Amino acid sequence: YDDYVKEAVRQGVDLIISGAGLPMNLPALVEGSKTMIAPIVSGLKSAQVIFKYWMKKYDRVPDLVVIEYAVNDAEDELEGGCFEALTRKALYSGKEPAVLLIFSVFLDDYNLQERLIPIGERYELPMVSLKNAVTEQFYHADSRVISKRQYFYDCFHPTNLGHRVMADCLLFNMEQLFGVEPAGEEPDKPMPVYSDLFEGVKLYDRSCIPESARIEPGAFTDRDQDLQAVERNLDSFTSPCFTENWKKTVGDGKPFVMEVMAKGIILIGKDSGNPDFGTAKFYIDGELRGQLDPHVNNWTHCSTRILLQEAESKLHRLEVRMEEGQEEKEFTILGIGIV
Fold this sequence. Notes:
alpha/beta
């Protein structure tokens, strides 16, 4: 990776767009050049990590942020609100990067661009749709440029050739924008299309608990080590996510209790195919609000659930306890997001 970037800089490229991981050392590789740099992000946490790390270590922010509709965005309970929160976070971070939205497409021609395009229009952002670019031509064998077999690695992800098509679409969009005069003064911060509630969400786990919170872990005192693992910082190996979690093991059925000042609460739970895991239920201020099922997809990964959405912040009591008859089962709280 480093060699490719250095050679691109030596050749005088204008812009490097880097995805499939967090390019933590990218500023160092282009230092002293005029090459602009842009990470592709698909979540608030990745955007926050990039901004904070680049500023602290390199005193630099991205010149452009590419926000991607990716594989799991269909599970956004806010129906576009999380995507909009990420967009607003990039736009109004105080660092003023350019922002571009890109919408991937699945093998079955599905994506959520009809939900997300209004966000791009509200904030007057350039957008790239892979659905618009490639889907129709799949079905015209006489004039087809690329087939589905060539474009898709699996039902979600492109092949190397498919990623080349994505890169070409991004470059074409950028070429259309070069030379376009700015519209004038920056507009005022517009009202959100869907929601700005989780724009300022902060993640907490057992390693960092807000001063305003009080936690009684009850039976959730273990640490789960069977976790989803991902490649980080362009490393070829994987490392586990959410290691500072709260896991309930067999035995004691005491609930997890958190008292905190909040207007929004997100629980990050562990989805698992392990039959030892059972269903929990959650209460807000003593009122039963719903169930937390760790077998929605039956494979080890992170699963989010919005527990609270209100207009004003006040003291709330969150309680997570096992479903009746499943007190001997396991359950893992990976983290809690608080607004």
